[in-house]
Structure formats: structure tokens, C-alpha cells
Specification:
alpha/beta; binds adenosine-5'-triphosphate; two-stranded antiparallel ribbon; Rossmann fold; Helicase, Ruva Protein, domain 3; 339 residues; binds magnesium ion; binds zinc ion
Length: 339
């Protein structure tokens, strides 16, 4: 079965059983429905949103919905033992062994950067092996990330930071599900679904995605979670220290502090969900340091200032630009519950 068929099938099966295929990813129902529509229709997904809004988490959840798969042992292209297709398997260079790969490992991650070259994606000739076996021997070809993503989800973080030449190596795969290996005149099937991310333009240092490529993705905007969602995220993903209790109302305070940095013009880089997680964990550490077994408001104030100072950035136009600590303290105080 094609990867997109597999994913569609497992998602529809979960929906029929009234389970949430995106369980663990918190966003508006509308957004979740749009994501499922893209995935069920077998299209490639582009997630756009500020840092720390669950884009990587979402891609991993989708991979974990895939079933285990069987792969020819040692095959560099993840061939299906029932239907081997790569040059190595077709020339009987791999043994009869079979390995089983769990769904959540059917995930190849590429970190977008200006240094990523087309060869990284499409593979390259290894000169040492080429000397030994001859330049036309396919063993001399080292597969790229795209080949390694055969029968897996190809997750490309910050696609927009990749040089255009390298971006364009994806076009043939997205369009036809194959790659052509230069110099060998052979095509290798690559059955993958690409999930790419892009940070919005206000986050410095971004380039654009070429129009030809952008048109091959469905774009979904991911925003910040609501207070309730962010509290749930903390409960689910943040570390809890043994023997330290954290009142539900104080959890909301942690989240409100981060949220208020997202709503003021004084701040150009607001606190992400990661900042909330850091505040939550550090508040517990501070309570322990101070010899208590429950977190109180002062612990949160202290933890939040630490976590904001390392992360949030004050806008250059703000009157607090020279004095971020003063602004952070104000934000924290305003977010504390009233009397
Ligand atoms: N909407 C969300 N649903 C579930 N978890 C979330 C969500 N947003 C943030 N988180 C949590 O915050 C942390 C960061 O999330 P994640 O790495 O998925 O974000 P990201 O969007 O990939 O960030 P970046 O743009 O920096 O790569 C994780 O611990 C994750 O569990
Ligand atoms: Mg990420
Ligand atoms: Zn093979």
C-alpha cells in the first residue's frame, strides 16, 4: 500500500472508532480538521507558525499513526521485502533478512539550513567506492535524505532556510514519487509524504519558498494555543517533580504570563509554549530550593522572570528596550491573579 493510503486508512479507522487521530496536538478544531483533510486527501503539508507551537509534535504524531513496516535488512532505500525495487536489491546485493520498523520511526527529519546542498537530499557518488567498484557501479552511489524517506514521512523543518537549488530537489518527488539519479540514468521510487515547516516572516532571517515548490503544498497556519490548551500541554508534556504539588490556578498564571507577552507591541519575540514549560519546571525547582513541597506565587514570579529573560525579546522601538527586566517584571505582576 502507498504511504498516503496507509495514513489515510489508519486515520479513517481511528475516526470511525471515535478516536482523535491528532491526540496530543492541541489546536482549534477548525485547524485540526484542516490538517486531517490535507492528510486524508494524500497531499503534502506545510505548517506555518511561530516557534514552539507544536509543529514538530504534530508531524511525529502523524508518523506514529503509521503501522509497523517490514524492510529488507541493510537496504539503503527501505525496500519492501515483497516488492524490492532499488538497484541494490534488484542486483541481489542485500541478503534475505527482514527488519521491522515501528510506525513512530517512519520519520526522517531534515533541519533546513543555508548549508544544505542538493547532494544532501538526492545523494552523491562516493569517490572511494567509485575507485574500487568503478564509476558506473551503483554501489558507489550514497542515497540522500529523500531516498531514506522512502515509505516514511519526510519532515523538513524550516524549509524556507534551504537554498532554492536544494528546495527544488523536492519537486520531482512531490510530483511523481520518484528521483532520477544523475549519472546512472535510473529512477528510484520514493513513496513519501512531506511535512514542511516555515516560521512566519516577522521572525528574522527567513527566506522565501520558491513559488513552484510552494504550490505543491497545502499551507496550514498554526497559531498559539488558548490558555486552556496551553495548561493541558503543560500537564501532558512538562516534567513534574516528585513530591512537589502545583495548584491548577497557578498553572493558569504560568500560561497567562507567556500569553501576555504575545499581546504587547513592546515585545518582538514573545514567550513560546517552551517558555511556559520552562517556567513550570523551574517554579517547582525553586519551591524545592526554598524547602517547600508546593509551588507558590513567588516561585512562579521568579521562574517566569528567568525564563523570559532568556527568551523574550523587547522590540527595538519600545521604551523598555534598554531595560527588559523592568518590562518582564511588569508583565509578570499584571498576570498574577487579582485579590
Ligand atoms: N499545539 C501544541 N500541541 C501540543 N504540544 C505543544 C503544542 N505547542 C507546543 N507544544 C509543546 O511545546 C514544545 C515545543 O513544541 P514543538 O517542538 O512541537 O514546536 P515547533 O512548532 O516544532 O517549534 P519550532 O518552530 O521551534 O521548531 C513541546 O514540548 C510540545 O509538546
Ligand atoms: Mg519544531
Ligand atoms: Zn532495496
Amino acid at each position: 500500500m502507498e504511504l498516503r493510503e496507509e495514513l489515510r486508512h489508519s486515520i479513517l479507522t481511528m475516526l470511525k472508532a471515535k478516536e482523535d487521530p491528532l491526540d496530543g496536538f492541541y489546536a482549534a478544531e477548525d485547524t485540526k480538521e484542516a490538517i486531517l483533510a490535507v492528510v486524508i486527501s494524500g497531499r503534502h503539508l506545510m505548517l506555518e507558525g511561530p516557534p514552539g507551537t507544536g509543529k514538530t509534535t504534530l508531524a511525529k504524531i502523524l508518523a506514529s499513526r503509521l503501522e509497523v513496516m517490514q524492510v529488507v535488512e541493510g537496504c539503503r532505500y527501505n525496500c519492501d521485502p515483497e516488492f524490492p525495487q532499488c538497484p541494490d536489491c534488484l542486483n541481489q546485493r542485500n541478503g534475505p533478512g527482514v527488519v521491522t520498523i515501528p510506525g513512530n520511526e517512519r520519520f526522517v527529519r531534515v533541519q533546513g539550513s543555508p548549508e544544505l546542498m542538493p547532494e544532501d537530499m538526492l545523494g552523491d557518488i562516493d569517490p572511494v567506492i567509485a575507485m574500487q567498484c568503478g564509476i558506473h557501479d551503483q554501489r558507489a552511489f550514497t542515497p540522500g535524505r529523500i531516498h531514506r524517506a522512502h515509505r516514511k514521512i519526510l519532515f523538513i523543518d524550516e524549509l524556507n532556510r534551504i537554498p532554492e537549488r536544494t528546495q527544488n530537489t523536492l519537486i520531482q518527488v512531490l510530483e511523481e514519487g520518484i528521483t532520477t539519479i544523475a549519472g546512472f540514468d535510473i529512477t528510484i521510487p520514493v513513496d513519501t509524504i512531506v511535512i514542511a515547516t516555515q516560521n512566519p516572516e516577522e521572525f528574522a532571517g527567513v527566506d522565501r519558498i520558491s513559488e513552484t515548490l510552494g504550490d505543491r503544498f497545502e499551507r496550514i497556519q498554526i497559531g498559539y494555543p488558548t490558555v486552556e490548551q496551553e495548561v493541558t500541554i503543560l500537564k501532558r508534556y512538562a516534567r513534574k517533580y516528585r513530591g512537589v504539588s502545583f495548584d491548577d490556578k497557578l498553572l493558569q498564571t504560568v500560561v497567562r504570563i507567556s500569553q501576555s507577552t504575545r499581546q504587547t507591541e513592546d515585545i518582538s519575540r514573545p514567550a513560546s509554549v517552551r517558555a511556559s514549560i520552562a517556567t513550570f519546571e523551574q517554579a517547582q525547582a525553586i519551591a524545592q530550593l526554598r524547602g517547600r513541597n508546593s509551588v507558590n506565587q513567588e516561585d512562579i514570579e521568579k521562574a517566569a522572570v528567568i525564563s523570559l529573560q532568556g527568551r523574550a525579546e523587547v522590540s527595538p522601538g519600545s521604551s523598555y528596550y534598554e531595560n527588559p527586566a523592568v518590562l518582564f517584571r511588569q508583565i509578570v505582576e499584571k498576570s498574577l491573579p487579582g485579590e
